Amino acid sequence: MTASMSSSDTLLGTDPVTGATPLYGALLQEQLAEAAGMSKNHVQLLESGLSDRKKQSPANPTFGTLVALSRALGVDLPELLRGVVPRAD
Q1: Which residues pair with 57 in a beta bridge?
Q2: Is 63 inside any structural domain?
Q3: Domain limits for position 27
């Protein structure tokens, strides 16, 4: 259901200037992973835009993963996907 992300897009990517992750602010990767019911490694892969580090394949999270992350972060799904999924105008 979700579109594959290009290598330049990341779902939870860090700001290239500050290194901050704007969506989850003070939450640590471990805390986000626990709140979303996934491993820290899964969160790290999503941040990097990959689904497999060795194969360098792009991330393609399931709808369930996206919903779990949006709930854990306390943001609506459109907010989570802003900047990753192109708007259909």
Answers
A1: 52
A2: yes
A3: 1-83
pLDDT in tens, 23-51: 555 577 888 899 999 998 998 888 888 88
Instruction: Return the sign of the alpha-carbon dihedral for residues 85, 86, 88, 89.
Output: positive
Is residue 88 in a domain?
no
DSSP state of 38: S
Query: pLDDT over 90 for what percent of the chain?
Result: 19
Beta partners for residue 58, in sequence order: 50
Tokens of 25: 């602010």
The Cα–Cα gap between 12 and 9 comes to 9
Can you read off the two tokens belonging to residue 56?
Answer: 């360098």
Task: Report if residue 89 sits inside a domain.
Answer: no
